[in-house]
From TrEMBL, chain A:
The lineage of its organism: Eukaryota, Viridiplantae, Chlorophyta, core chlorophytes, Trebouxiophyceae. The active site is at C86 (glycyl thioester intermediate). Its EC number is 2.3.2.23. It comes from Symbiochloris irregularis. It is an enzyme of class 2 (transferase). This is E2 ubiquitin-conjugating enzyme.
UniProtKB/TrEMBL annotation, chain B:
PROSITE patterns: ZF_C3H1, ZF_RING_1, ZF_RING_2. Residues 208-264 form the RING-type domain. A zinc finger (C3H1-type) spans 23-46, 52-79, 138-165, 293-322. Pfam families: zf-C3HC4, zf-CCCH_2. GO terms for molecular function: ubiquitin protein ligase activity; zinc ion binding. This is RING-type E3 ubiquitin transferase. Keywords: Metal-binding, Signal, Transferase, Zinc, Zinc-finger.
Length: 193, 364
């Protein structure tokens, strides 16, 4: 993996604060990162802060980074169940000249301009085409409920607490979701597994 | 009758012991053996024995050079019927010696000569002699081996001139005697260095869009090369080659891999270059030079007419037979069941007879 390039990319993202995207390093490896994308203005996603799980493979930048929404989003091209993204530049149209920043900016523009003809979530896409106002309402309510910046930070803190106790991150996240955000209940759930 | 294993072992031990006492013929004749310490034959015995010399002259030495050097068993003498003309065989040092001798005899003649030679005539004779000998030495070309490496197997016996060190091209390329050749070389070298320095200055700031580093700052000297595409975007040769050799299923071959990572214009090949071309003419010149270099290399697919090159007449490599005669080839194409277009490779009768895997795959 080209560590020099990733460090340069991270510096560039840090320097540019106006773009509305940022990246955090998880732990001490640069293999797993966390991206943050601000919801674009004049869309149902406005005001939200969307968290994206980024996995960089060893061949990066010659293969696209694996990106997935951790925050639940109501969007035709993003799975409402697991956050999988349908975007060509993260798949067959990837180019090594693209960076984490440009990829996150592409996600931001995807939020602004959904492509219902090439859907990831068929239910949302159908709703987007037939009942647009209903779609906008639902997307807005999901943004308020799941992509609230204050909520996101407390959620991350809770996950951090569980990870510090020695639990696996993915399991902690699932347990927290199941326990409705209660750290104590999530911990008991994890211990009983 | 079955051979007893112990007797076989003893036999081999005997063979090995015998070998160990026999002098190694390679070490004996050349004072070196490629097998080194693993050699089964004795190097000590070989080193102790004297080389057996023949009376006959060495034919390679007579023609100009013998790679065996001092270890050659034939006589290194140059006879009158040698193929190299006598004038060509005169070494620069010999020329200088003769010049010195000639001058000395002239000055001796001046002091002791009974006929009392006039000083003007003497000066004239001296300059004539000098001119004549200089002309002989100046006509001698530079020894290529010495120019490149600073040493020559012929040593002082070399029939060609051994040049002096040129610091701009880092070669022994300055003619020791001919002033004209000396100045010519300095002029050429200076122009080349000036040109490459201005080019290098312009290339120094160019960064690769893939690794985001300045191409000429790469710690590995061998990787300080640009890969030129049809567009104006800059990449390291290694980065763009790695991207274009991408066989990952995730990425589309035609619309992503074969195109420029920035502007997505299709480029069919990458041209390596040491400098970043300032304009289109320079780029065209670099491409042309690259193509002409490739055109001298025999195509591996074509294999002197035995194989089929799928690139046909548009292949950059040379399609010729072993004599260098250009050969054209008609490529036949077929579509596989999966819709992939493939070139038809020659099928030999032997592949059917020898249970060739290809044949069985076809049948299945």
């Amino acid at each position: 993996m080209d560590l020099g390039r990733i460090q340069k990319e991270l510096k560039e993202i840090e320097r540019d604060t106006a773009s509305g995207v940022s990246v955090d390093v998880m732990g001490n490896s640069l293999q797993r990162l966390r991206g943050f994308v601000k919801g674009p203005r004049d869309t149902p996603y406005e005001g939200g802060m969307f968290v994206i799980d980024i996995i960089l493979e060893d061949q990066y930048p010659f293969v696209p980074p694996k990106m997935r929404f951790i925050t639940k989003v109501w969007h035709p091209n993003i799975s409402s169940a697991n956050g999988a993204i349908c975007l060509d530049v993260l798949k067959d149209q990837w180019s090594p000249a693209l960076t984490l920043k440009t990829a996150l900016l592409s996600l931001q523009s995807l939020l602004a301009l959904p492509q219902p003809d090439d859907p990831q979530d068929a239910v949302v896409a159908k709703q987007y085409l037939s009942e647009h106002t209903k779609y906008a309402q639902q997307a807005k309510s999901w943004t308020e409920n799941f992509a609230n910046p204050a909520l996101a930070s407390t959620q991350e803190q809770k996950v951090g607490q569980l990870v510090d106790m020695g639990f696996d991150e993915a399991n902690s996240r699932a347990a927290l979701r199941a326990a409705g955000g209660d750290v104590q209940a999530a911990m008991e759930r994890l211990l009983s597994e | 009758m079955p051979v007893h294993p112990t007797s076989l072992l003893a036999f081999w031990a005997e063979v090995v012991a015998l070998c160990c006492s026999v002098p190694c013929r390679y070490f004996f004749s050349r004072r070196r053996c490629d097998k080194g310490d693993d050699c089964r034959f004795s190097h000590a015995a070989a080193a102790g024995s004297e080389l057996e010399r023949f009376e006959e002259p060495c034919m390679f030495y007579a023609r100009g050079r013998c790679t065996e050097g001092d270890f050659c068993r034939f006589q290194h003498i140059r006879t009158e019927d040698n193929r190299v003309p006598a004038a060509d065989r005169r070494t620069p040092s010999e020329c200088l010696d003769r010049l010195q001798e000639g001058l000395e005899s002239l000055s001796l003649g001046q002091s002791t000569g009974p006929d009392g030679c006039a000083p003007e005539a003497l000066g004239e004779a001296e300059s004539q002699l000098q001119e004549q000998l200089h002309a002989e030495c100046e006509a001698q070309p530079l020894c290529e081996e010495f120019t490149a490496s600073g040493s020559c197997r012929e040593g002082d016996d070399c029939s060609k001139a051994h040049g002096n060190w040129c610091s701009s091209c880092s070669k022994y390329a300055l003619h020791p005697i001919s002033r004209l050749a000396y100045l010519n070389h300095l002029g050429e070298c200076g122009a080349r260095v000036r040109h490459s320095r201005t080019n290098m200055d312009a290339s120094r700031a160019v960064t690769c869009s893939i690794c985001l580093e300045v191409v000429l700052d790469n710690p590995d000297k061998g990787q300080r090369k640009f890969g030129l595409l049809d567009c104006q975007h800059s990449f390291c040769l290694t980065c763009i080659r790695q991207w274009r050799s991408n066989t990952d299923d995730q990425v589309d071959l035609e619309s992503a891999v074969r195109t420029c990572p920035i502007c997505r214009c299709t480029s069919h090949f990458v041209t390596p270059s040491n400098t970043w071309p300032a304009n289109d003419e320079e780029k065209a010149a670099i491409r042309l030079a690259y193509m002409s270099r490739l055109a001298k290399i025999d195509c591996r697919n074509f294999d002197f007419g035995r194989g089929i090159c799928p690139f046909g007449s548009s292949c950059f490599y040379r399609h010729a037979d072993r004599d260098g005669t250009p050969m054209a080839q008609q490529v036949r194409w077929y579509n596989t069941a999966d819709g992939v277009r493939k070139s038809l490779q020659p099928t030999l009768l032997s592949s059917f007879l020898e249970n060739d895997r290809r044949f069985f795959n076809l049948r299945r």
